[in-house]
Amino acid sequence: MTTVTGEWHKTACVLCSANCGVEIKLEGRRFARVRGDKDHVESKGYTCEKALRLDLYQNGRHRLTRPMRRTDDGTYEPVDWDTAITEVAAGFAEIRDAHGGDKIFYYGGGGQGNHLGGGYSSSTRAALGITYVSNALAQEKTGEFWVDGQLFGSSTCHTTGDYEHADVAVFWGKNPWQSHGFPRARVTLKEIAKDPDRHLIVIDPKRTETADLADIHLQLKPGADGWLLAALLAALMDADLIDEDFLVERTVGFDEVAMMLAGIDVADYARRAGLTEDEVRETARVIGRAGSVSIFEDLGIQMAPHSTMNSYLEKLVVLLTGNFGKPGGMNLHTHLGPLFGRHDDRTTPVTGHR
């Protein structure tokens, strides 16, 4: 067995938005050892299996090690980096000069994982005059992002939960025991599960590892999320578990929503979702009486039928119970704050890309 010596180098994993701190020992270009960084202010030594396999992703045998250029017969030949970069840049410049930068569509530039590409993409887009942009999030989060944009006035606004401090954590179509998605996911799940004063709610047709830890697991019919969400909202209204002060001070249009919810038959909607009325009303009571609630909606609901409507109804659960902009509740991502200098309220808010 080879003994690896040398210095531990501190860095961060780029494979999801949590960006956990890791320490790495190098052996040439190989990551000989990877471990969680206990000094990291957020992850505190925690890491999932993805970070521990960073060497495989960087140095796997199927990875290209140099640029490849297509030849006239359809095969590829290796070229050096200077050649590849020069030819690609010239091709982009030719399109820009002949047709305008808005004819180039930029896909990438950071998202849930490696955010470093965001800085590079900004410079590239500025140089070429690119206006149309997308990234991997558009494949799965389009509906939720659109709803957030309507709620908060900007397509760049997105919410995230404070699960570490939430009295009630709800995971809808999400199994964070395996997919993580927030800092120190397994540690946080176990802490909630063992605390008698907190509740873990999982809403998923499948019994997952997270569901096994849950106080409440609503095993609804696949694709019936809209029926359950509407029933849950109506049950909150019936039990007078809405935050009227929050709604008056922070929202507009509640009267119209209330009229819509008043016509919902909770028992019928619960049945359509494959659940009982008692299950829905008990879940509503747990959410409505909690001091703070965070909800994580993920692909199980976002890739299901009527996903944009589902995201809207899920946001209503948060807003009707006043769980926005508070510890333990849903908040805007910190990337919306300034990284340097002072915030200027006179700055025009970003309205998103065309």
Question: β content, as a range?
Answer: 15-25%
Instruction: Count the E strands.
Output: 13
Largest sheet: 4 strands, parallel
Summarize the helix and strand pattern as letters. EEEHHEEHEHEHEEHHEHEHHHHHEHHE
**Contiguous helical run count:** 15
Q: How far do the termini sit from each other?
A: 56 Å
The residue-averaged pLDDT reads 89
The residue fraction in helices comes out at: 25-40%
Describe this structure in words.
The longest helix is centred in the first third of the chain and has 19 residues, at 81-99. Helix 9 (225-238) packs antiparallel against helix 12 (266-272), helix 9 (225-238) packs across helix 13 and helix 9 packs parallel to helix 15. The chain has helices at residues 49-52, 54-59, 81-99, 116-128, 142-152, 176-179, 185-194, 209-213, 225-238, 244-250, 254-262, 266-272, 277-289, 299-302, 307-320; strands spanning 9-12, 21-27, 30-36, 68-70, 76-78, 105-107, 132-134, 159-161, 168-172, 199-203, 216-218, 293-297, 330-332. It has 15 helices and 13 strands. It has a four-stranded parallel sheet, with helices on both faces. The protein has a three-stranded antiparallel sheet with strand order 1-2-3. The relative contact order is 0.11. By secondary structure, it is an alpha/beta fold. It starts with 8 loop residues before the first strand and ends in a 22-residue tail after the last strand.
